[in-house]
Amino acid sequence: MNQLIISAATEGANPLVPNPWEMLVVFAGFAVLMFIVVKYVVPMFEKTFAERAEAIEGGIAKAEKAQAEASAALEEYKQQLTDARAEANRIREEARAEGAQILADLKEKAAAESARITAQAHAAIQSERQAAVVSLRTEVGTLATTLAGRIVGESLEDYARSARVVDRFLADLENQNAGAAK
Amino acid sequence: MHLPAILPWGAADGFSKQMLLVILSVIIIATFFLLAARKGQLVPGKLQFAGEAAYGFVRNGIAKDIIGGKDFMKYVPLLFSLFFFILLNNIYGAIPLIQLPTFSHVGGAYVMAGIVYVTWIAIGIKKNGLRYFKLATVPSGVPVYILPIVIPIEIISNFLVRPVTHSLRLFATMLAGHLIVMIAGSGIEFLIMQENFLLKGTSLLVLGGAIAMYMLEALIMVLQAYVFTLLTAIYIEGALHADSH
Predict the structure, then answer these.
(1) Staple partner for B10: which of B4, B116, B174, B232, CB 3.0–4.6 Å?
(2) Which of A63, A51, A41 is nearest to B43 (CA)?
């Protein structure tokens, strides 16, 4: 009811005519608010925003850097791996070549050795043969002389006798040889 | 229309409830945003997040979108202060027991629109020199023989009508909302006092309507604060880029 009465009481007032004191209060209030906003609120918010943006961008930059480093390291490792593989292949090839070389050398050496041994044997056989020939020559002469003496010494009456003589001679010869062997 | 003053009590002039509310609004807004912005943590707490969201709404949603460019930051404090000053002073009308939007008195609306009026004209002159008035009133690409009609229209609409509509839009919506809620309240009170049972019952209908109107008013209070700030941004943008309009 109060409101009704108040409304009725102020009915005549024109709502478009302002109260100057109210205008002053609104203006002063808004000026104070503007001052606080310009001086403190906006700078503080903007500072926070800037810091946050910086933090996020810094984080992104850091992440990008880490990514770049990681891929560089990966590249390096791959390179090293390739190098190592090449190295291993090279060493294997070398070893194979060396092995083949050693084998060939050994074969050659063995062949040379066998040739040498064969030659030595040949030479030894040759010299022994030579010696045998020499000793045979002298012995044959002696034997022939001895045999001739025996044949001449005993009368060659008949075949049996001469056969006996030859047998005895051969037996003697055998005995002599056995004696010489001893 | 005027409520009685607080000091001296009940007088027509003096320190009114309105004035107290204006001062209170400045204290509330400043305290809230100072507290919210004070810590400035990279990972905000609840209060700081709310403050940043509110600040970001005006900064990005109004200033950056409408004015844009490199120097929109210069106008953020004005738009920010306007929006929250008007918003809180409007919302008073939706708070029980206070129930008084400050701008339902025309004086405050005149002051706000006047500040904006002076600001955008000053920006226009600073940016374009005195040529600004020619840029603002003579539209480019209009045939010469139409200019005598167009120029007066532009002068009236830009320099006379604009501040009037800017202030009265705010004032009128607030006053109308205030009146409707008040009338509904008085109507309910009046009807419920009646002896007739059926008449008593109709107060329920009025109550339902009053609640709906109250919701609508709450929406309009927020909307008008936004509209006022948005228009301010549009005027500033127009003054900044007068040569390309």
Answers:
(1) B4
(2) A51
Helix and strand counts by DSSP (H, E) for chain B: 8, 0
Q: Based on the number of CB atoms within 10 Å of its own CB, is B178 exposed (0-12), middle (13-18) or buried (19 or more)?
A: buried
- H or E, element range at A23: helix A20-36
Separation CA B20–CA A25 (nearest Å): 9
The whole model's pTM is what? 0.69
Whether the predicted pLDDT of B22 surpasses 80? yes
Chain B closest-CA separation from residue A33 CA (Å): 6
Distance CA B26, CA B19 (A): 11
The nearest alpha carbon in chain B to A38 belongs to B77
Task: State how far residue A58 is from chain B, nearest Cα, in angstroms.
Answer: 13
CB B150 within 8 A of CB B96: no
Check whether the bond before B139 is cis (ω within 30° of 0).
no
For B40, which of A6, A32, A48 is closest by C-beta distance?
Answer: A48
pLDDT at position A2 is 54
**What is this model's ipTM?**
0.87
Tell if the CB–CB gap between A19 and B2 is shorter than 8 Å.
Answer: yes
User: Strands (DSSP E) along A78-121, which ranges?
Assistant: none
The closest of A1, A9, A10 to B186, measured between CA atoms, is A1
**Radius of gyration, CA atoms only, chain B:** 22
pLDDT tens digits, one per residue of B202-237: 888 888 988 898 899 999 999 999 999 999 999 999
pLDDT in tens, B46-93: 899 999 999 999 999 999 999 887 888 999 999 999 999 999 999 998
A148 in B contact zone (CB under 8 Å): no
Contact A44 B42 (CB under 8 A): no
| All residues at 6 or more sequence positions from B229 whose CB lies less than 8 Å from its CB, including other chains | B58, B62, B79, B82, B83, B86
Rounded CA-CA distance B223/A41 in Å is 24
Residues of A in contact with B85 (CB under 8 A): 29-30, 33
